[in-house]
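Entry for the shared binder. Reason: the reviewer on the internal report wants the predicted structure included alongside the sequence.
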Amino acid sequence: MLDKIQAISDPTRYAIIELLRDKEMPAGKIAGEFKSITRPAVSQHLRVLKNKGLLSERREGTKRLYSIRNEGFIEIYQFLSKFWDVRLQKLQTLAEMEELKKCQLK
């Protein structure tokens, strides 16, 4: 899981993930979104994300189309939700305590 987090921690790879969040795109169009990075560099970033299981690739003629592989993010989501769930539980407990105090003051 850490390798996936490291993969998306790179700003360019994170930007690629954001581009693909809601749609499939060809590699050339993805590369065209990055003016300061060469196409081979973007291809390398795509390869890293694909190898980590975060992107899927399909060929259509000579095009390579990339999209988010939702299954690749499940492990990251499960890890992060542990922290979120604890915080939500604490928030719920505090809210319930405040509500109880208000009821006792009436």
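Summary line for the report: Residues 74-105 form the longest helix (32 residues).
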